[in-house]
Design brief:
The chain is mostly helical. It has 2 domains: 93 residues, no CATH class; 51 residues, no CATH class. Helix content is 62%, strand content 7%. A 3-stranded antiparallel beta sheet has the order 1-2-3.
């Protein structure tokens, strides 16, 4: 489920995401513990473990939280409607997309294909993995093609 592996590991053993620094050993331990917790159905613990990394700007963790929230897992979903849950998940997904995280850009492409039925935006996002310039082009295209929120 939450396939949280290492982000970009540097020679000093630290992981980087934007200007945020994470000890890679701590991240690996969190990944293992969150996968174990998920396996036993302890969704509150998974959320508790992954959220600090997502808040610190780690794209992989942000994508994990987006998936987690959007799928209805964990304590944050107890009192949320499906629409509220999806909106909250989209905030986390967009944070990961802004860093051109491949799973996030691919997921956004799937949303545009299957839910929004917008092939133009789906095609754009399919090509945005690991390409910040393309992320900007797709973001601009969304602004051009989609109505402004009320």
């Amino acid at each position: 489920m939450l396939a949280l592996a290492a982000c970009t590991e540097k020679a000093d053993g630290k992981l980087w995401s934007d200007d945020h620094r994470v000890d890679s050993e701590d991240y690996r331990k969190m990944t293992e513990e969150s996968q174990t917790a998920f396996g036993r159905g302890d969704y509150d613990r998974v959320y508790e473990l992954v959220l600090p990394y997502a808040e610190a700007g780690i794209a992989e963790a942000q994508f994990g939280i987006a998936f987690f929230v959007g799928s209805g897992y964990g304590p944050v979903n107890a009192d949320l409607s499906v629409e509220e849950r999806q909106a909250k998940a989209m905030v986390w997904l967009r944070r990961a997309v802004a860093q051109a995280y491949p799973k996030a850009t691919d997921h956004l492409a799937v949303i545009y294909t299957d839910i929004e039925k917008n092939d133009t935006l789906a095609a754009c996002w399919r090509t945005a993995a690991n390409d910040l310039d393309q992320v900007q082009r797709c973001t601009d295209l969304e602004k051009e093609l989609l109505p402004a929120p009320p």
